[in-house]
Design a protein that fits this description.
The protein is mainly alpha-helical. It has two domains: about 55 residues, no CATH class; about 190 residues, no CATH class.
Length: about 250
């Protein structure tokens, strides 16, 4: 590996193919999922990254194209989270992701903690949107699962005099809050277990380790805020919908 980059060649193709097939084989042999999902994900990632690699330089030349690409990322993230949640109002995923990302990104830019350049804003927005997407998906699914499997406890709460929203929150809030665990673990173990992409990228770009560390800390703490807001909004919207539709 020269200059910190992955060499393009037959060895890379072999490694990627072997790893993809290994992941698919494990799912198939253990019954933990469908092997096809790994193969499909790998194929999509290859095509999408190839396309982005071709257009990214042009996208970063102007603010309008950067903004359009960020909007595309948001739309794809909202659709993905919506599909993962699988039920509830269609507005849940879009609103939860936007509520987490938009204010946080605005704070970063307004405070000048984040340089207002397309080269910096685009990848940062992608990281934040991706984190919000994952948190929204996990929180939404866990909320609906809890409300479905613990319906008796929900009715018991109503019998005790709780309002439908409050009874639903008592049931689903602890499980939905677990959606923040991956971000919390990543933040707690950064530098000890993982060296995240922003840190390594800044180092490879020629900056010193202190600046790289500050950049990564900014990203991690912003992600915690983004995901916490996204989770809270997703749970609130799903619970309110349940309370409204409950006979």
């Amino acid at each position: 590996m020269s200059g910190g980059t992955v060499p393009i060649g037959p060895a890379l193709v072999v490694a990627l193919t072997a790893l993809t097939l290994a992941g698919a084989a494990v799912l198939r042999l253990t019954g933990l999922g469908r092997a096809r999902t790994v193969l499909t994900a790998a194929a999509r990632a290859t095509v999408q990254l190839g396309a982005v690699s071709v257009v990214i330089v042009a996208v970063l030349r102007a603010w309008w194209s950067t903004a359009a690409f960020v909007l595309l990322m948001y739309v794809v993230a909202a659709l993905t989270a919506r599909r993962r949640i699988g039920a509830g109002p269609a507005r849940v995923a879009p609103l939860a992701i936007a509520a987490g990302v938009a204010p946080s990104l605005a704070v970063l830019l307004a405070s000048r903690a984040l340089p207002a350049t397309p080269l910096v804003v685009l990848p940062t927005a992608g990281i934040l949107i991706g984190g919000a997407m994952t948190a929204t998906s996990l929180a939404g699914r866990r909320t609906l699962d809890e409300l479905r499997t613990r319906h008796g406890e929900y009715e018991a709460g109503l019998a005790l005099g709780l309002l439908p929203r409050d009874a639903a929150l008592e049931i689903c809030r602890p499980a939905a809050g677990q959606a923040l665990v991956p971000a919390l673990d990543q933040t707690r173990t950064v530098g000890l277990v993982t060296l995240p992409g922003a840190f390594v990228g800044v180092l490879l770009g020629g900056a010193g380790p202190v600046r790289a560390g500050a950049t990564q800390l900014l990203i991690l703490l912003t992600l915690l805020a983004v995901e916490a807001v996204a989770i809270a909004v997703a749970v609130e919207l799903l619970v309110r919908d349940r309370a409204r539709t409950e006979p």
